[in-house]
Amino acid sequence: MADPQADQGLKEERIDHVLRLMARGWRGPVIVQNCSAEWKVTTRQAYKYLRMARARMRQAAREKEKRMLEIMLARHDDLRDKGYEEKDLRLVLEIDREDAKLLGLYPPTKIAPTDPTGEKEYAALTDDERARRIAALLKEAETE
Q1: For residue 45, how many other CB atoms are within 10 A of its CB?
Q2: Residue 96 belongs to some domain of the structure
Q3: Residue 86: pLDDT above 50?
Q4: 3-state secondary structure the chain
Q5: Which domain holds residue 19?
Q6: Considering the domain boundaries, does residue 138 fall inside one?
Q7: What's the pLDDT tens digit per position in 20-51?
Q8: Would residue 117 count as lying in a domain?
Q9: Does the residue 119 lie in any domain?
Q10: How far apart are CA 133 and CA 125, in angstroms?
């Protein structure tokens, strides 16, 4: 655990504090430095609190994603029912397609990479071409 001296309530309080700092835009090293000094814990212990806060954020994001998928599918069920009632089979088919996309039932879409213009097929740069482009960028930066 983060701090063998801290009880579970204190640990939760500290993790919540780290989450609030993250929400304010504080960066990890600054959070660690601040919390280490404020709580009189080692840097290593403060980093453990930061890792636990990040894990909590990831878990909350996964749970929200799951809830949103459930909500979307429930809305689609309502719309599908309405499509059947109104005998609008195009609507039903479109909802089925969208559900299949949401559930990942289709294989991934293959995308052929192109150059930035979108006209030519992508081709990797040769070492010489890469060196010429870097030299041109450096020369351009010197003139600015």
Answers
A1: 21
A2: yes
A3: yes
A4: CCCCCCCHHHHHHHHHHHHHHHHCCCCHHHHHHHHHHHHCCCHHHHHHHHHHHHHHHHHHHHHHHHHHHHHHHHHHHHHHHHHHHCCCHHHHHHHHHHHHHHCCCCCCCCCCCECCCCCCECCCCCHHHHHHHHHHHHHHHHHC
A5: 8-102
A6: no
A7: 999 999 999 999 999 999 999 999 999 999 99
A8: no
A9: no
A10: 10
